[in-house]
Amino acid sequence: MTETREQRPTEATLDFLRAAFPPEWREPALGHEAVAAWEQENRVVLPEPYRTFIAEVANGSSLGPAGDGGLQPLGWLPDTWPYLGPRQPGEPFPLEAAWPWEDEEGVDPEDPRINAAFNKGSIVLGAEDGPSFWLLLTTGPHRGEVWMIAEVGASPVPGEPAWGFTEWVQRWHTGDDWWD
Fold this sequence. Notes:
The structure is a single chain. By secondary structure, the protein is an alpha+beta fold. It has one domain (11-173): 3-Layer(aba) Sandwich (SMI1/KNR4-like), CATH 3.40.1580. It has 5 helices and 4 strands. The chain has helices spanning 11-20, 32-42, 50-57, 112-119, 165-173; strands at 122-128, 132-137, 146-150, 153-156. Strands 1-2-3-4 form a 4-stranded antiparallel beta sheet, with helices on one face. α2 packs across α3. The radius of gyration is 16 Å and the shape is globular.
């Protein structure tokens, strides 16, 4: 299994996450056993505080970050997700830095690195403006970071350093634009 469990998030972090997602919009929490079973099946330990959030607070929310449908339940994909092969959240995320492949001359749209960026080492948090997707990286040196991926490239959000799950939710919750 990839990665080890991190320390449980503080109660202040969990209180903020509970407050950010009104109960009437939440999907039921999975519980720790179901999260552990998903992790075992996918050969990865989810980063905190996301792991505890989906186990104890909510496994997704129709009101929340990700403009197209809110926060996706664990393992779900937005309707606009391009099928580029099976999801492999326990495999290494292939990028170490932003890669705007659309700007790189000679990159074939069928380049296997693009498929790997979409499918390996992450879970999908949700969609934004159709074909853009929020990822939470689950493996590698950027584990726990939120990245944006689209048909044109992938990058940490909002840049270096990238936000973690809590910072991403805070940005949405305050109503600030993603890129300000």
